Amino acid sequence: MSVMMTNLGDVKLANRGKVRDIYDLGDELLFVATDRISAFDWVLPNSIPDRGKILNSMSVFWFNFTKDIIDNHLITDDFNSYPDELKPYRDQLEGRSMIVKKAKRIDIECIARGYIIGSGYKDYLKIKPENGKVNLHGNLLPEGLKTADKLPEPIFTPSTKADSGHDENISIEKTSELLGQELTEQLKEMTIAIYKKAADYALTKGIIIADTKFEFGFLDNKLILIDEILSPDSSRFWPAETYKPGENPSSYDKQFVRDYLAGCDWDKNSEPPKLPDEIVNKTLEKYKEAHRKLVGKDID
Ligand SMILES: Nc1ncnc2c1ncn2[C@@H]1O[C@H](COP(=O)(O)OP(=O)(O)O)[C@@H](O)[C@H]1O
Ligand SMILES: [Mg+2]
Fold first, then answer.
1. Is-above-0.90 flag for pTM?
2. Which residues in the chain are classed under CATH 3.30.470.20?
3. Which end of the chain is more exposed for a tag (fewer CB within 10 A), N or C?
């Protein structure tokens, strides 16, 4: 069953994001990954059936994979152990949801970049090099990098978490002013350590994780990893096979969708058109392939 939007009766809806529906269970949150998909900042009218299950399963995999570095908010993704009030909603929840600990969120997006692309590259190009180095928000990078170049070392580029509008990249120094130097250092260290471990592993499976975003929070005064992690929605996944520095890499998962939307007569300022079945199916195949490569199995 494809789930475009959940409806859990009296269970309290806390947030409906572009992709996830989040419910408030008191001390815990229920995260449901629907089959919605967004492109060019629009939620598309189609679902990609089972996409939510794939995203949910990837996050669970990565939470387990990284918990030796830092604890995270995941309590369970096993529907059979969910509280009774959720029992009537097996169809909507099983395999695409998780219960997590509610944390006090730190309002900074912690971005790790192993490759220079997107807003990071845009910012980089604006900065005047000094002594052969470009100071990108507190990271010293060599001058003359081309788009999609691999960085000598992964860097930490935080951004503000804007409730509305676009997030803004800020320097490590500015982050220290907001959060204090000690916490900033800790976030930087964690962000890079998690990214490195995941990116090294993904590369052995033929996937480059070019960059990714983490969110952290406090639970009983302890720093933990929250939100979703290392999915194609929070990261740039590139096929390693076709990667070429200096060229704009194709998106692992959304390329067919983007190509279709860019090639039709949609103006990107109004409701997007419906995707043809062929695009939906090809896109779903890419998600399944990424899941198979990374998690090592198909979703049930
Ligand atoms: N364990 C947690 N405790 C509290 N808030 C969390 C936790 N995990 C994630 N969040 C927050 O829940 C929200 C999830 O919304 P999301 O589905 O990402 O939609 P959007 O970001 O588009 O609003 C985000 O604001 C995120 O920071
Ligand atoms: Mg979010």
1. yes
2. 105-242
3. C
Distances, alpha carbon 278 to alpha carbons 85, 157, 203, 214, 237, in Å: 38, 37, 29, 33, 22
Overall average pLDDT of the 165-188 stretch: 94
Pocket of ligand 1 contains residue 102 by CB under 6 Å: yes
Residue with tokens 């598309």: 44
Closest-approaching ligand to the CA atom of 227: 1
| Mutation test residue for ligand 1: of 30, 105, 214, 218, the one with most atoms within 8 Å of CB | 105
The yes/no answer on whether domain 1-102 falls in CATH 3.30.200.20 is: yes
Residues 6 and 33: their CA atoms lie apart, in Å, by 9
Verify whether ligand 1 is closer than 6 Å to residue 16 (CB atom): no
Beta carbon of 17 within 6 Å of any ligand 1 atom: yes
- Point out which residues pair with 226 in neighbouring strands: 215
| Residues whose CB falls within 8 Å of the CB of residue 262, separated by 6 or more in sequence, listed in order | none
- Helices first, then strands: H and E counts in the chain: 7, 16
Ligand 1 atom having least distance to the Cα of 73: 1
Q: Where in the chain is the domain with CATH 3.30.200.20?
A: 1-102
Residue nearest to atom 12 of ligand 1 (CA): 227
Centre of ligand 2 to C-alpha 212, Å, is 12
DSSP state of 31: E
Distance of CA 76 to the CA centre of its chain: 20
Q: How many residues does the chain have?
A: 300
CATH code of the region 105-242: 3.30.470.20
203-260 confidence digits (pLDDT tens): 999 999 999 999 999 999 999 999 999 999 999 999 999 999 999 999 999 999 999 9
